[in-house]
Amino acid sequence: MPVLETPRLRLRALEAADAEALHPTLSDPASMTWWSHPPMESLAETRAHLERNAAAPDWRSWVFAPREGGPAIGFVAVGEKRNGACELGYMIAREHRGSGLAREAVSAVLDQLFASEGRRRVFADTDPDNMASRALLGRLGFTLEGRLRAEWETHIGIRDSLIYGLLREEWLSRPPRD
Questions:
Q1: How many angstroms separate the CA atoms of 79 and 58, rounded?
Q2: What is the CATH number of the domain that holds 93?
Q3: Which residues form the signal peptide (predicted)?
């Protein structure tokens, strides 16, 4: 997995050793509201979860941290679903939300997927009430493609799912951003 750099971030492969840095977010009930599983209850549970994710053959996860150094503040995960199509997931620590860092990290991964790897499609599955995620996907140029009713049974109940998609040519032809 390549290391990716942006003006403010460095993204590298997820490791079990990132558990201490990511545990405050993965154990935070507010941060985990929209995930398909409840908050992690212990550092050991977070470490085991990250070990499974790091070893999953069909998923790749980048953690991101400030470029000048420091612990991980979030991650971007990519699941191989079909030839040329990937699912995208992401999370950022609460104290960094609204800073544009999640957009910067996800953009770096999208550049990797579309420009470097030639993927044709990336999609994201999000809860209809997760307004922050929906806004980020919109800023990145994703299109709302559909709603799957009663798709997930989660720790907060049965939930619908919104599917957002982005095509390679849409990403590569977007106007430059500052």
A1: 6
A2: 3.40.630.30
A3: none
